[in-house]
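Batch job 17 of 40 flagged for manual review because the log was empty.
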Amino acid sequence: MSVLKPKAGINSSPKWPNAGRRSFMWKAGTAASAVIASAAAGVSNAGSDPNASLRDQVDWLSNRIGRLEDANAIRRIHQTYESYLDRRLYNKVVDMFTDDGEVVFNGGLFSGKDRGVRRLFCDLFSSGMTGKKLELAPDFEQDQTKGWDIIEVAADRKSAKGQFPFSMQVGKPIDDDCTLVKMARLQGQGIVKWWEGGICEAFYVKVCETWEIKRLEYRVSSKADYRPGLSHARPIEVPEFADTYPKDPTGPDKLV
C-alpha cells in the first residue's frame, strides 16, 4: 500500500511552523506596550495631585447647591414682592429695587429706584389700587406651561433671571375733576378697575450678599373687565402710555 505524502511548500518546513502567529503577537505586543505607556504617563501626571479631581467635584457640587439655594431665595423674594403689592405696601416694593432699577409696564419704561420706580408704584399703582392678586378671569385660563416659575442663576451666582405668572387687579382713577368723582376717590371709589394676566419677567443682582430687583417687565397676555363675583368676563382695550414724565405726572420716563 502506498502512502500519500504532502507536497513541499508553504508550512511544509518545520523551521517556521507559526510564522504568521508570531508576527501577529509581535504587533499586538507593541500596541499593548504603547497603551500601557500612555496610561502610565497619565497615572504619573495625576499622581502629582491625586486630589485634584475630587476637589473639582466638590467645587461643582458646592456651586450647584449654592445656585439652588439662590433660586429658592429669589422665589421667596418674588413672593414677598407680590405680597407687598397685594397689601398695597408700595414703599416696601420700591425698597426691593437696586438704585438703577427699572420697570416696563403698559408700554412705558420707569427708570431709577427713587425716580421712575417710585413714581410707578407710589403714585400710579397707589392711585389705582393696582397689584391686588386675583384668580384667573373666567375663560381666560393660561397655558399650563406658562404657569410655572422659571428661575436661572448665573454660574458666578451674582445675577439671575426669572419668569413668574401673574394675575392681578389693575386700576386707573377716572379722569374727571367733578365733585362727585372727588368724593368717590376719598372713599376708595372713582377708579376704573380691570383684570390683567400674563408673565412677569424679572432680573436680579446680588448686592452685599442680598438679592435685589434690577428690572421687571410685565408681559400682559390678557385684559378683561373682571372682578371677583362675576361669572363671566369680556376682553377690554386699555390704551398704553401716550406721554412721558413730566407731561404725564405719573407717566414713564420713556415709551417702549
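Reviewer: the log was empty due to a logging misconfiguration, but the result itself is present. The chain has five helices and seven strands. Unflagging and moving on to job 18.
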